[in-house]
Specification:
The chain has 5 helices and 9 strands; from the N terminus they run βαβαββββαβααββ. It is elongated and about 60 Å long. A hairpin with a 2-residue loop joins strand 3 and strand 4. With 169 residues, the chain is of the alpha+beta class. About 4% of the residues have low confidence. It has 2 domains: 48 residues, 3-Layer(aba) Sandwich (Rossmann fold); 102 residues, Winged helix-like DNA-binding domain superfamily/Winged helix DNA-binding domain (Arc Repressor Mutant, subunit A), CATH 1.10.10.10. It starts with 12 loop residues before the first strand and ends in a 7-residue tail after the last strand.
């Protein structure tokens, strides 16, 4: 699979009963992205598949420019700086990562699960309401009126979206 260009980017997870260190090393050297031995829990399998897909998506996605700038919002991804209406805004790392992911997916509705998986990593348990708390803090930091947001909108019963066109106002 790795030698053929059309299949070389397909992630490979080896599921096997061979649990020895030498077997794992051979499997990984042959091109596997991860190696899981039997018996395994379904939760571990799902977590490993999600991790591989995240890594694959990050490698294959179009590179994000270092700076996002539109209207009154400027985000520098290499220096972790956010500027709103000409003023620097202090964000926590998770708030910055959340804003970055929303900005990279403009006008796309993202569920809490998608945001949790991307920003917090799908391998740890985080209460889905954590997303709501971080969205509220993010709105307070960047919106003119956090109670009537223009940029980070709630799509009731689904999730959130970054309304990029509102930056043009």
């Amino acid at each position: 699979l790795r030698e053929r260009p059309e299949t070389s980017q397909i992630p490979i997870l080896m599921l096997t009963a061979k649990a020895g260190e030498a077997d794992r090393i051979v499997g990984l050297e042959m091109g596997a992205d991860d190696y899981l031995t039997k018996p395994f829990s379904p939760r571990e399998l799902v977590a490993r598949v999600k991790a591989i897909l995240r890594r694959t998506e990050m490698q294959s996605s179009h590179p994000v420019s270092e700076v996002y700038e539109k209207g009154p919002l400027k985000i520098n991804f290499s220096t972790y700086e956010t500027i709103v209406r000409g003023k620097a805004v202090r964000l926590t790392l998770k708030e910055f990562e959340l804003l970055g992911f929303l900005v990279q997916n403009p006008n796309r509705v993202l569920s809490r699960d998608q945001l949790l998986d991307r920003v917090w990593g799908g391998e740890v348990f985080v209460d889905p309401r954590t997303v709501d708390v971080h969205i509220r803090r993010l709105r307070k930091a960047i919106e003119k009126n956090d109670r009537k947001p223009d940029w980070i909108l709630t799509v009731r019963g689904v999730g959130y979206k970054f309304h990029e066109k509102a930056l043009e106002k």
